Amino acid sequence: MSLSNITARIRKAETDAGRDPGSVTLIAVSKVQPNERVQSVLEAGHRCFGENRVQEAAGKWPDFRESYDEIDLHLIGPLQTNKARQAFELFQTIHSVDRPKLAKTIARLADETGYCPDIFLQVNTGEEDQKAGVMPADADNFVTECRALELPVKGLMCIPPVDEEPSLHFALLAKIAERNGLKGLSMGMSSDFESAIALGATHVRVGSAIFGERDYGA
Ligand SMILES: *Cc1c(COP(=O)(O)O)cnc(C)c1O
Fold it and tell me: Which domains does the chain have, with CATH numbers?
């Protein structure tokens, strides 16, 4: 089982970085994976999972929740405002808050329901056209705006460009978080979670290294 292997590598990266063992949360990214694979990770005792799409998560997690207690679900993909209400029902944490309109919708839902998932703000550290997230130069203002809306902002999230050294992006995200007094850093995936931990990641999002390659053709 790759889960134990990844957990061991996380512990080692924590120790190497002089950080407390257990200070990094492993989000097992189960998007597109067959239910049998997800179930085997649940059977191994893991409870923290990440999904990219509200619709996909709604199709499988209510059933898993009937069989397993204390599932902690994280939305790590883009969120349309018209799916926000459904996201509230499914997810304990939303990592992809990336624009004022979405922040306002979440604040309104929180008012209405008396509950709000934990929030991470996504920063487009590579300033890529096709990628979600606020520009690094706008991040401080966006943090201020979300705090004024009384959102429970826990930290920042980034997805580095595929063709660049991820460490530079992790370091930039850590710097923006620090100057805004934010502790949470959602960064690092299968290929780079150890360097993310070295640079302060509190949440790593690891999919294929745990579950195997995703089969989008299925
Ligand atoms: C799919 C995905 C991951 C996991 O990617 P792997 O390379 O399979 O570990 C992490 N974060 C986000 C935002 C993703 O969409």
Answer: 3-211 (3.20.20.10)
